[in-house]
């Protein structure tokens, strides 16, 4: 087995680092600034580069990194890696599909429950007014809604979309989807005790899904233009909820803010933003939004699963 030098530029689970070191690999767990990355890769003669979404592995790096042979995306999306340049320079690109699907799906459900029960606002107001205006707050937040019986529309039905469908179904929701395929999906929900329930998820064209869904959740790769722009927002059901835990730039955030202020969209939740790491302050100040700083796939469990996959990939590459 070859003894490779590995740079985990955006971090790597401690358990994975330990496994790699035990196998005889050298692991550099440091953050190198984007503008210094190519110089560092060549100076340290790095064979394997592990990144998340923060590091851009562009054509300049892939053409200039003299010893680089493998790039691994700790996650799913490969938007930040120039795969054409990688292929031209005989550099293998891999990712870890499926490892973070449950984490993202759970975060979507957390945001959804937060909006339906107004927990985002209650959590702000209780520390400020709870000791003096408890009864008033109780009255203010006693008009939440239930998810059971609502329709969840999922745009993008890969691993994460399917995992979300299982969770929504388990909460008593009806689920429909939009994707490249158009057949009815037969799915299975497995419980902790081993029991299984089969259910079906029907396809809808995008305009029909938007008009029919109480909640719309996005799970697609990056697009050339807005997936949800003004036209699509106009097509959404009055008072619907919109969630994006996929990619920044899928939603026209200015148009979304206008729809929230007008009450056409009752609530929105964003884990990703058009302008990261400096989202629009006007968007962040919207009262009818639940926000998180791009943490969809970031749980202890998911990072351990990602680490396990990366260890297996590097060992296989080194053989």
From TrEMBL:
Keywords: NAD, Oxidoreductase. Residues 10-318 form the D-isomer specific 2-hydroxyacid dehydrogenase catalytic domain. PROSITE patterns: D_2_HYDROXYACID_DH_1 (PS00065), D_2_HYDROXYACID_DH_3 (PS00671). InterPro entries: D-iso_2-hydroxyacid_DH_PdxB, D-isomer_2_OHA_DH_cat_dom, D-isomer_DH_CS, D-isomer_DH_CS1, D-isomer_DH_NAD-bd, NAD(P)-bd_dom_sf. It comes from the Bacteria. Residues 110-296 form the D-isomer specific 2-hydroxyacid dehydrogenase NAD-binding domain. The keyword Disulfide bond does not apply. Pfam families: 2-Hacid_dh, 2-Hacid_dh_C. The keyword Transmembrane helix does not apply. GO terms for molecular function: NAD binding; oxidoreductase activity, acting on the CH-OH group of donors, NAD or NADP as acceptor. Belongs to the D-isomer specific 2-hydroxyacid dehydrogenase family. PANTHER family: D-ISOMER SPECIFIC 2-HYDROXYACID DEHYDROGENASE CATALYTIC DOMAIN-CONTAINING PROTEIN-RELATED (PTHR43761:SF1), D-ISOMER SPECIFIC 2-HYDROXYACID DEHYDROGENASE FAMILY PROTEIN (AFU_ORTHOLOGUE AFUA_1G13630) (PTHR43761). This is 3-phosphoglycerate dehydrogenase. It comes from Aureicoccus marinus.
């Amino acid at each position: 087995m070859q003894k490779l030098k590995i740079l985990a530029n955006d971090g790597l689970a401690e358990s994975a680092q330990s496994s790699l070191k035990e196998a005889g690999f050298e692991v550099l767990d440091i953050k190198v600034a984007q503008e210094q990355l190519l110089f560092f890769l060549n100076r340290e003669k790095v064979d394997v580069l592990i990144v998340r979404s923060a590091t851009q592995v562009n054509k300049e790096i892939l053409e200039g990194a003299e010893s680089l042979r493998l790039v691994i995306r700790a996650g799913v999306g490969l938007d930040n890696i120039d795969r054409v340049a990688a292929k031209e320079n005989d550099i293998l690109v891999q990712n870890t599909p499926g490892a973070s699907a449950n984490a993202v799906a759970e975060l979507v459900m957390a945001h959804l429950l937060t909006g339906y029960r107004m927990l985002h606002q209650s959590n702000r107001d209780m520390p400020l007014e709870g000791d003096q205006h408890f009864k008033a707050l109780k009255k203010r937040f006693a008009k939440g809604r239930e998810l059971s019986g609502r329709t969840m529309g999922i745009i993008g039905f890969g691993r994460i979309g399917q995992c979300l469908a299982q969770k929504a179904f388990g909460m008593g929701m009806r689920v429909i989807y939009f994707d490249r395929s158009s057949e009815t999906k037969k799915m299975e929900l497995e419980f902790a005790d081993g029991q299984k329930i089969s259910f079906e998820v029907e396809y809808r064209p995008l305009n029909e899904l938007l008009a029919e869904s109480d909640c719309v959740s996005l799970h697609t790769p990056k697009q050339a233009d807005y997936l949800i722009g003004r036209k699509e927002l106009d097509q959404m059901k009055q008072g619907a909820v919109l969630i994006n835990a996929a990619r920044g730039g899928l939603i026209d955030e200015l148009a979304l803010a206008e729809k929230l202020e007008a009450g056409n969209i009752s609530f929105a939740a964003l884990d990703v933003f058009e302008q990261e790491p400096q989202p629009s302050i006007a968007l962040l100040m919207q009262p009818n939004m639940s926000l998180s700083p791009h943490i969809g796939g970031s749980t202890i469990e998911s990072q351990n699963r990602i680490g396990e996959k990366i260890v297996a990939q590097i060992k296989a590459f080194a053989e």
